Amino acid sequence: MTFVSLMAAAAAAPAPAAGDNPYGLLQALQEGGVISWTVFLILVTMSVGTFYILFTKFFEQQKIISQGNKVRASFWNSPNLRDAAGKLDQKSAYRAIVDDTLTAQDQHGKLTNPIDQHDWMANSLARSQGGIGARLGEGLAFLATVGSTAPFIGLFGTVVGIYRALIKIGASGQASISTVAGPVGEALIMTALGLVVAVPAVLAYNWLIRRNKSIMEDLAAFTNDLHGYVMSEGKVKPAAVAAGTANAGSASVARGAQTRSGAAPTPAGSQPLTTGQTSTGQQAGGTGTTTVDRR
Fold first, then answer.
1. How many CB atoms lie within 10 A of CB 225?
2. CA distance 145 to 103
3. For the chain, which residues make up each domain, given as ranges?
4. Candidate ranges 65-74, 106-115, 253-262; pick with highest mean pLDDT
């Protein structure tokens, strides 16, 4: 075969399509077989579950935070606990604590061998608060599991892909870099997918745990204030509310005193003398002593 015929054969050969990549995710799944497809579906399921839990828990936490702001704004201004409970949403976490408090208060008198009311209320509030904490923690174990296992699941898919690629290369009898690099690189895609699934799960887990801790601290403060309110029959309220009430009372007393002072002005000359002034209110000169006209 002459050089001219070789050139003609090369020209007649079909050119590869533009952008046609023989390697990629789909090719890696096909090379890996059933095991690679199973690993891929597991990782996709983990990723979907991670983002579902992230958004649902975020909205749940945000709802409780907004309820806490509402409690601080108007709850403690009510005349009694039942009226205060009516200001809260029916299915809110704070409403559940108040309802459990009222139920425990009613049931304490029905005990045949009653225990101390302080201990009874404390146990009831702790149980209610623990139930809310358990509901807030639902789904977080899934995030922790995904964050810790997804990289290894992806690595397993990579190992299987590399194994099948090497078996295929060995059967073909070609061991050049071009025949080895492509299939092995395809298999590494599964490891990358495992990391892509694991990193958001770990970040979401840590973020939600931190927000849950802040919410539980607010709930603990509320239950403590509620306990003191019930045990004192409404006489003990949070410090901020008590300070606001005291300030309002002081302002009312001051306004009343100012009003009485304006209604009955002090007659001229009835004010006590001070050092450096005469009885007519003029400043005395010289020694700065009080000068009184006795004539």
1. 19
2. 38
3. 50-242
4. 65-74
CA distance 277 to 279: 7
pTM reported for the whole predicted model: 0.68
Q: Which candidate, 241, 235, 234, 249, places its Cα nearest to that of 83?
A: 234
Is 60:136 a contact under the CB 8 Å cutoff? yes
String of DSSP letters for 241-269: HHHHHHHHHHHHHHHHHHHHHHHSPPPTT
| Per-chain mean pLDDT for the chain | 74
> In 3D, which of 32, 35, 56, 48 has the Cα closest to residue 187?
32
Rounded Cα distance, 64 and 59, in Å? 9
CA distance 195 to 197: 5
Instruction: Report whether pLDDT(130) > 80.
Output: yes
